[in-house]
Amino acid sequence: MATALPYADTVFKTVDNTMTQHLMSFASAQEQACVEREKPDYHKRLACLDAQEQELDELGELFQRADSTIVENAVQAVFAAENSKQCNSPKGRWEHPAAATNSASLSLSRELIAATGLKRAGKYAEAVQLADKVVTEVGDREPSLLASALFAKGSALVLRGDPNEGERVLLRALDIADANGNDYLRAQILVELTYVIGFEQWRGQEGLRWGRMAEHALERVGGDEPLSFRLAIGISGSHYVVGNEERSLEIGEQTLDRARRLYGDEHLLTAFFLSATGGDYANLGEPAQGLPFHEEAIAIGTKLVGDRHPEVAMYRNNLGASLTGLGRTEEAREQFETARSIWKASGSRAKEALALSNLLSLIHI
Asked: Which of 138, 202, 298, 363 is the most exposed place for a label (fewest CB within 10 A)?
């Protein structure tokens, strides 16, 4: 992580600690799987663990050649890495695309893992390109791998800023997952579509319908905490889009409580839901109640990724919006200026423009 970014050292420490925890967890899970090797799903479970370990190895290689984009996204990427507990489920979570034993598909499976790593590390264009390569080469001979590659491509397209095309690709992936009976992948795709359609494309009513299908799909596979958090963002956002701010806040607070219980206070997911909850209170006309949530989000983010990280800039921007609602314009100006400075340094012109717009709005107050 040899970059000149002011938050690189903080990011490195968080990534190093988290990767160590992940590897210890995998070692323990692999040992347990071997102890229980008489169970009928032993080989699939072990293959799942091997595939998820490959995902961590891929992230490790990306971190070794990290540029500014990878450093910016490194903590989010390592937090999002697969948890070894997911390989314990008899409901299909060990049906990882890279767990296939077919030698003809092994190299493509590894390329799909690489595409997932690129997506998590913020390299969206490269992720789309590599996932598309897998789609082209696998053809129709491995439906599960094809659907997984389309899912990776579609979700990366959304992150790259092309939600329309991303939706089209995700719908194709869903058709294949349905036909192939891959319940867990189907749940993943439905969760993503809930967010993409309901919030990203501002079609709230449709998003809520997709959300109900996603909830049923998650129930079918026995639940999944990481997916449930992603789904909560999509459903809460869809409620906000249709004007149901109270329900959006309710979902946000419930999800924040779950994040605290599962991940504790030193996790970016907790910080994200804290900042979102603060914003929900502002949307309901109660910005004062949201201030402690914004402040805690900033404190957590600063500890995990440093006070000059673009993620912390978003938390500060959100705090500024709540302060504006309270008429505390000078304090709001300070938060917007700090956010703008961070985003300008990181090269995020769109977000810099957001902070500038917020600053200009103070002129009329």
From this structure: 363
Specify the 3-state DSSP secondary structure of 298. helix
**Cα 245 to Cα 248: distance, rounded to the nearest angstrom:** 5
Amino acid at 286: E
Nearest Cα neighbor of 85 from 146, 39, 40, 21 is 21
Report the alpha-carbon distance of residue 322 to residue 197 in Å, rounded: 27
CA distance 78 to 244: 34
Q: What is the pTM of this model?
A: 0.90
For residue 54, how far is the Cα from the chain centroid? 19
Helix or strand or coil: residue 141? coil
Rounded to whole angstroms, how far apart are CA atoms 54 and 210? 32
Closest to 244 measured CA to CA, from 200, 289, 208, 288: 208
- Nearest CA-CA partner of 217 in 188, 197, 192: 188
The pLDDT tens digits of the residues spanning 145-175 come to 999 999 999 999 999 999 999 999 999 999 9
